[in-house]
């Protein structure tokens, strides 16, 4: 067993950390406050080659692996979870299904520009009546000659209106329930495809979360991903890996909060000495650091399994469950260590605490992760 990262992975971490500190940190508070997505940050990520980290070079990727990808998401999320989820939704959810299930033509047409960061990806599964119960979705795709006509609404879609390429799940045969669901690659600008409500959120406010509307959108049959009826399986398999991207986001948020709290505790003087000299604060920091490390190990283990062609769905769900809960606990402790200042927007820990909450909710709530983990346990 080897717990060391490779030299390339250490270099990648250093590069992404420098980028995050220099280019992301300066505007993180403002983007959170005013709730806007900054396209130029995504463009810089493309220039650094991190928009297609795990994909082969022949598809425009960096030819690295999922361990490198989770390191990048972690480092971005350490300073700004909105940027972390932008990358995670783009790679794990918008690109992975094309890499895994796409034809060669679909990969060249869609995966390449996604990997190169010329286009942004998104994943549209959730609907008003189908959140945790994703198999009950109502969006329809009806065959019309060589095309499908897509009709319905999706809600809460990350990268919403800023994306260009969407993996959309719709029913092609409602009599078959989840076995009648199919996956489609939908492009921004297809007639009848528009955007609805933009959510105003508690956290990750610099990431967009938008409703998608499909009004008789004509999707050519070449844009069917996989086979008709394979959509639910594609969605579930995509989420198996995607959940580890969210685990990495949660680890990054927690590490960021720990770093902030540690620095502050060494500087803040009360009762004539830094609060870090109080054992109560030291114990809190020790617990925080231990939890972050445990969450990181689970997350890296799931990435390692995927990189080595081994089953990773259970570990990925475990990583997301643990890392999400730990991010919430550690950020709450960080605010406590900052005292009243932590509650204000003068310091980033309150943003980190607000951002952490979503990691327990999206890509399947943590209650759903327990169902997924239990399903794996019972099958084993
Ligand atoms: N891989 C392959 N196949 C799978 C699978 C997996 N991981 N999980 C389930 N399946 C298959 C099952 O084998 C079964 O196949 P058969 O019918 O052929 O036997 C079929 O799918 C149905 O399985 P279940 O009966 O277990 O399905 P269910 O309806 O009970 O739902 C669930 C299971 C795990 C709760 C699922 O609905 C789920 O994951 N819900 C949460 C939805 C979710 O995570 N949404 C995230 C949206 S994306 C997002 O949020 C983005 C973001 O954060 C940025
Ligand atoms: P519900 O399913 O209504 O759940 C409500 C509560 O009931 C939760 O606590 C849940 O855990 C619990 N519950 C439900 N069923 C069970 C059960 N069987 N057992 C125990 N407890 C249960 N979706 C996408 O498709 N693409 C995206 O890009 C995307 N991005 C998102 C970004 C944000 C900021 C948000 C808020 C959501 C996003 N989502 C996205 C949707 C997200 O995946 C769903 O919100 C999530 O899966 C939960 O669904 P729901 O909100 O309908 O909650």
Automatic annotation (TrEMBL):
Essential cofactor(s): FAD
Domain spans labelled Acyl-CoA dehydrogenase/oxidase N-terminal: 6-118
The keyword Iron appears for this protein: no
Gene3D superfamilies (alphabetical): Acyl-CoA dehydrogenase/oxidase, N-terminal domain, Butyryl-CoA Dehydrogenase, subunit A, domain 2, Butyryl-CoA Dehydrogenase, subunit A, domain 3
Alphabetized InterPro entries for the sequence: Acyl-CoA_DH_CS, Acyl-CoA_Oxase/DH_mid-dom, Acyl-CoA_Oxase/DH_mid-dom_sf, AcylCo_DH-like_C, AcylCo_DH/oxidase_C, AcylCoA_DH/ox_N, AcylCoA_DH/ox_N_sf, AcylCoA_DH/oxidase_NM_dom_sf
Key words, A-Z: FAD, Flavoprotein, Oxidoreductase
Domain Acyl-CoA dehydrogenase/oxidase C-terminal: 229-376
Domain of life: Bacteria
Annotated catalysed reactions: a 2,3-saturated acyl-CoA + A = a 2,3-dehydroacyl-CoA + AH2
Domain (Acyl-CoA oxidase/dehydrogenase middle): residue spans on this chain: 122-217
Flavoprotein listed as a keyword: yes
Coiled coil feature spans: none
Pfam families membership: Acyl-CoA_dh_1, Acyl-CoA_dh_M, Acyl-CoA_dh_N
Molecular-function GO term, any one: acyl-CoA dehydrogenase activity
Family membership: Belongs to the acyl-CoA dehydrogenase family.
Protein name: Acyl-CoA dehydrogenase
